[in-house]
Design brief:
The chain is of the alpha/beta class. Among the domains are: 379-584, Rossmann fold, CATH 3.40.50.1700; 638-751, Immunoglobulin-like. Helices cover 30% and strands 17% of the residues. It contains 24 helices and 26 strands. The strands form seven sheets. Strands 5-4-3-2-1-10 form a six-stranded parallel beta sheet. It has a six-stranded mixed beta sheet with strand order 11-16-15-14-12-13, sandwiched between helices. α7 (154-169) packs parallel to α9 (214-221), α16 crosses α23 (569-578) and α20 (480-492) packs parallel to α21 (523-531). The longest helix is centred in the N-terminal third of the chain and has 17 residues, at 108-124. The model has no long low-confidence stretch (mean pLDDT 96). The structure holds 1-deoxynojirimycin.
Amino acid sequence: MTTDLEKNHLERVESLLDSMSLEEKAGQLSQYFYLQVPGQDKFLEAELRAGRVGSFLFVTDPTKINSLQRIAVEETRLGIPLLFGFDVIHGFRTIFPVPLGMAASWDPKLYEQVQATAAREARAVGIHWAFAPMLDIARDPRWGRIVEGAGEDPYLGARMAEAQVRGFQGETLGSAGHIIAGPKHYVGYGAALGGRDYDEVNLSESELRNVYLPPFAAGVAAGAGNIMTSYVGIGGVPGAADRRLITEVLRGELGFKGFVVSDAASVVDLVTHGFARDERDAAVRALSAGLDMEMWLGLQFGAGANPGPKQGAFATLPAAVEAGELDEKQLNEAVRRILLLKIQLGLFEQPYVDLDGIQTTFGDPAHRETARVAAERSAVLLRNEGNKLPLDRTKLRSIAVIGPLADNKMATLGPWVFAQGLGATVTVLDGLKNAAGDNLKIEFASGIPLPSRAIPSPFAGMAEALGSTAPGVSTDDFDEVEEFKRAVELARSSEVAVVVLGETDDMNGESASRSTLDLPGRQLELLEAVAATGTPVVLVLIGGRPLDLRRASQLTSAILLGWHPGSEGGNALARLLFGDAVPGGKLPVSWPRSVGQVPVIYSRLNSHQPHTASKRYWEEESTPLYPFGFGLTYGQVEYSNLTLNSTNIGLNETVTASVEVHNPSGKQIEEVVQLYIHQRYGRAARPVRELKGFERITLAPGEKRTLSFEIPSSARRYWSATEQNYVLDETTFDVWVGGSSAADLHAEFTVKEG
Ligand code: NOJ
């Protein structure tokens, strides 16, 4: 049913559309990066005045946003306001843990709050739209962008997807203090061959629908206003021009109502792929596939050091219509979607941002508090031999803090951060000092210089291009031999060594794939030397992907995975180390032993000789070092009495599983209770385990609680290659509940027609 308001919006869209020239229509579909590159700004402002720009990305200065908006509103023929988009990935001014870390919290409510906070800060400067959440399932830790998503599992991915969409957007499109969410990259980008960014993707329909699509379905169901296509193509059809995936699956099957944007330059890229003949062909085929907006750099692509300004491929759309290559009706459809959104956002009534409110929003202490809680809840305790953690502040007199990442702000923040509020970042060293109190000496030695990429990141200059000052990281101008010795001596003379190692911010994210999972640089050598002193070692791991920890885990009593924990990261990790907060995060990815095992997926399929599955390599176990869903807490947790309300059900019925969870220890614990199922036989072989429910709980000492999980028919539905369709099988299911994908508490039920 259409409400009066919706009717009014649609009428406004039609009356605007009637007055638009072909060029103005194509303009609404053209989005440009606005960067501080000489020549580009003047070119883009002229394009804007002529009505040939509908949206900008990468403008974060509110004064600039207002001045560009003023051109759109006051100096263009129709006065249609601009839409401003940005990569609000894990915070805007306040930085939260990277998305893979947020997924490790297994706390969708918290993730919703985090993205609502990010939205509030971004909206305060005039940004209307986040290029987030990234919903790509990622099963290859070599892929740098694994850090940007929720990991390997479609169910966890879907829960985190809907939470983020709700957080960004609020109640409805246009809610005050909120922005549009743009789930990306539709679809299958995470399956790039060899984990190499932008590489080719070959997905079966079954993998596509059972694994890669569910997070997008959840994001769409939660009301996402936008979807971004991916750089890659499945089966040789690039994402930006895949009519089946955009129009039939996304809009037709999933019911997506918003607008679809390309990834940066990926319409022009249709030519690069060897798919489109030229840019006009590319524009026509992308638009005909259902893509609404082209994201374009505004610069000559691949033109070397001094690229001149250049229009996008969509600038050729008017000529294509005039030449009869494209039906104007098709163009109108896309323009309608953009205009409707601008109306829904209230941009015609209030195009400008209120500069006075910004500092109040940025200064809200609740934002920092949310960042600290998020970092605490995303950390995963991977190892805690002899309960070395938490450290007892009342007894310890000295802690050596060692390692190049212990006091590095950018590494604490992670990728997709462009120097917003960098000064306010709390490193692990800062956090330990803040929490130590007067009687505990905290001393620091870097030991080795900051590790760096052998091949520099193509985005190295991005912060400057945004007009931000370059991040003020320490320059490590020390004598390397002396510094290494100093670190080892410091460890020897201290009661505990907290060694902070891992990856820098530019070692993961876009264009940051790796061919090994080693700790970069001389970090393992440093760890060996520190461990050889005999001082107990606690490893704090910073980064955004699983690394090879086989040796590191032998050298350390405890490993706390902090990810890139964000602005309050150091305070959060210090609170966990001292036991002021309790770790309870769980891995959203299986953690391989070595790079050669990749991909390691808990939800694998059985095949010949399943009992040898863990011995498929002869050098080492083919099991992961740490399974999916794994993470320790301080204290213990016990599971018992897994019961089902019925063990024989009809195809469309729901089973409810109940389980008792007990904390027998004298400490408060955090646990993520997880439910997995397995279909024993049917019209396709199904994964040995699939996550179908979870709940994060806190249990007081001695507390026992009963939890219930529903297993509805939708949780048993899957896409079968036999039927080339979704099916529900008559079969038997195994059920496990526990604290990881290795849970062994078991029950079973049978499903029959009728
Ligand atoms: C390219 C990336 O693939 C995408 O995730 C991002 O949103 C755009 N660039 C804009 O920065």
